Amino acid sequence: MLRAYGLEEVKTGSLRIGVVADDEPKEGLTHLSELLGHLGYPYHLIQLGSQGLELGRYSLLVIYESGLHRLGENPSSIVSTYAKEGANLLWIGPGVGQIDRETLSRVFGLRFISQASAESCRVAFASSGSSNVKIFGETVTNVELTGARAESYFLDSTFRRLFPSETCYPHEGGEIAYFFAYDVSSWWNVDLESPWSRPARLASAIRLMLADTTVVTLRPYPRNLASAFICRIEDVDALHTSSDWLSRASRYLQVHAARNVPLSVALIPVHADPGSGIEIRLSSDSAQPVRDWLYTVIRSRGAIIQHGYTHQHGSQRTGVGTEFLVDGNWMSYDDQTRRISAGKEEIERALSTKVTAFEAPHYKLNENTLRAIERLGFKCLLDDSNSPFYGFRSSNSGSGEPFLVAIPETLSYIPLGSSLSLTDKLKKIVDQLIEFQGILLLYNHLYDDAAFTIGVHAMEYALSKGNIWTPNVNDMGVFALERANAYKRFTVTYDSEITVTLGSCAVRGLTLSVNGQDKISWVKVNGKNWPVFNADYIILPELPDASNTVLIGFKEQPSLQSISAIWGLGLLGVTSCMTFRFARRAFGDD
Amino acid sequence: MRKKEFPRNLILCSALAFFFSYLEYYYVSLDGIPYREMYHVGFLRMPPYVLFPLAPALAVVAFSPLFDDLMQRRSDWSQRNRTLVLACANFLWALTLYDTLYYAFRSMFPLPTDPLGGVWIRREEASIMGVVNLLGVLWPTWYFATLPIVISIYVAYYIS
Fold first, then answer.
1. Are A263 and A253 in contact (CB under 8 A)?
2. Is the Cβ of B38 closer than 8 Å to some Cβ of chain A?
3. Which of A55, A96, B56, B105 has the smallest number of CB atoms closer than 10 Å to its CB?
4. B152: nearest CB among A532, A568, A576
5. Confidence of residue A518 (pLDDT cuts 50, 70, 90)
6. Helix, coil or strand: residue A13
7. What is the least distance, in Å, from the CA of A9 to any CA of chain B?
8. Per-residue pLDDT tens for A490-499?
9. A7-213 has which fold?
């Protein structure tokens, strides 16, 4: 349908990715949804209604075992029909044995052998070229190739090759059936050495399958930027007044400001040590040196993140324990609201700045915490969601509107006493994240000079990749919420021209990427010509309407604005004659 | 305007136009995208800083010989008239050069982050007067009004 070999051959249609899975909350499905949303593909969780699965509607069908029942009583025939219709198929994880032998061979080029736990098959890794994906206590499928190409293989702990872990079967029409023999959408951020290898493999497979198809995506960052680097300074409180730490922090700020990278500071409003009877507030006189540093951070485009109230409970001192989870019991909604509200007021009073970002101590938060921060007007949550993409928390008021952007940590932190070899590990993770447009968020306590050096090297390496956005957390939050508004109504219709519909977006710079063989020739936004585009992407202005239309053309458009050369030369001649006569008179030659 | 003063003022206007367009293209940007490309303000479709202070600054330099004459009271009405005409020509020349150089920088020495890097003017970017397609290259229509005025005045001045 949409397989495009130049737009001449594209028929009318709309590209959409269908996901066949149970919609109950499951980690894998959540991750897949976040990945598709982040990469800006229009997708849809398929619910089999009375009309059945609408053939031809999806260009790529992602199938999980859990959703097979949605394909009716005979999923094999649906899969077979879909393949005949020219859709790309992506099978993730176990369950392929439920497809009949003939269909499996014809559609995926595979023969099912067995399905078992990774331990029982001695599987330790899935290897594709230079990168290894660590396999955990999960189910793997053993298949034999009957025409498909193995993209990667399972390895045992001695790196001996076992059987294919990913296969690719290109059909004659150009469509591809791709198979993951393990659940690539789960177990993210579990392998400490290579935390994002699984989303990298999944994104790479989707890219491969849609490579020959004209696809319009809504890019995750503004102005066609490839990724975003955020540096967070962690656990700063009123006691951070030692000359050693302040000197390091000032130099760190200078180095980052010189490269236009703002710092986002996770700030604890009150330092408490009940054992010694100490309670120092950010607004106290003794905290003046750290306040001065924070003012400089804010002036350098930085942001303040509220990090709990005291970041402790009971007799613990600040920074040691959680705050809202006390001995396995969650604090009540009222208590959480009271503490967060008091902390917010303390920061806003001490620094005369508005705080809209929140990070729960040790990331421990529950529904009550979310309700409290929604009530207190926070827009951004720093979280450890095991995802390299920003996510959203919907309002508890029932409107379902996202009110909070969750920004994950993806580069982890720099532990006390780290050696400089940590830089190499961070560089590898940066490379991995940039490959699929993940967020680069590093947090640093600035414990020592090694932490300073590693942080600076990581930042410089990320920026050296080029095309990296350097927002603070608030910038990122505002953009992500606006993009989410636009994405909510994101549909793409392909004809000789491409019509994209988007929701409203109050920020400039939203980017549409067009993956096709033809170069963009003209663009109209809500009926008006728009000049900011290149061969394969468009940077959009603010989109004021609830529904906005972007029309993308690939053939030169005749325009009334293009006055003919004769008219131009005529204007030139008339003006010359008139002015020359006037000028001669002015210079007294007449 | 005395004979020596005219080329001096012309060079000064040209240099200022060069500096302004250089500054605008390489430094007036939003995260690497030139401001002019993203902000189409008002019916003139011109960034606000062109109306003020860039154009007035060019005007001040172009008309400075006239101001000089007026303040020094050193010329008669006819000479002031000549100076005024030449100052107008220099001002129009500076405006046209400033605008042309912006697109020249963009097409020949583009910012790596500029989505329109390497591209000459697009018809969507033109002012309300539009563009003229001459030999396959688009030119803002207002150039066809300003350039003949400027050239005619210079020619008339030299043959006078």
1. yes
2. yes
3. B56
4. A576
5. confident
6. strand
7. 28
8. 999 888 899 9
9. Rossmann fold (3.40.50)
**A210 near A150, Cβ under 8 Å?**
no
Tokens found for residue A249: 């922090």
CB within 8 Å: A530 and B30: no
Write the single-letter amino acid at A551.
L
Looking at domain A226-480, its CATH architecture is Alpha-Beta Barrel (3.20)
Q: Which pLDDT does position A586 carry in this prediction?
A: 84
Is the Cβ–Cβ distance between A89 and A178 less than 8 Å? yes
pLDDT mean over B52-69: 92
Q: Which residue do the tokens 């089999």 mark?
A: A48
Closest CA to B123 of A521, A451, A337, A547: A521
Residue B123's closest CA among A350, A533, A250, A198?
A: A533
For residue B53, say if its preceding peptide bond is cis, omega within 30 degrees of 0.
yes
DSSP letter at A387?
A: -
Q: Which of B132, B139, B149 to mutate to test the interface with A (most CBs of A within 10 A)?
A: B132
**Among residues A523, A486, A39, which one has the least CA distance to residue B37?**
A523
Which of A157-161, A302-306, A320-324, B125-129 has the weakest average pLDDT?
A: B125-129
Domain boundaries, chain B: 5-159
ipTM of this complex prediction, to 2 decimal places:
0.84
* Residue A483 pLDDT exceeds 70: yes
Structure token digits, residue B136 = 């396959």
Q: Which secondary structure element, helix H or strand E, spans residue B108, and what is its range?
A: helix B77-108
pLDDT at residue B103 greater than cutoff 90: yes
- The H or E element spanning position B41 is none
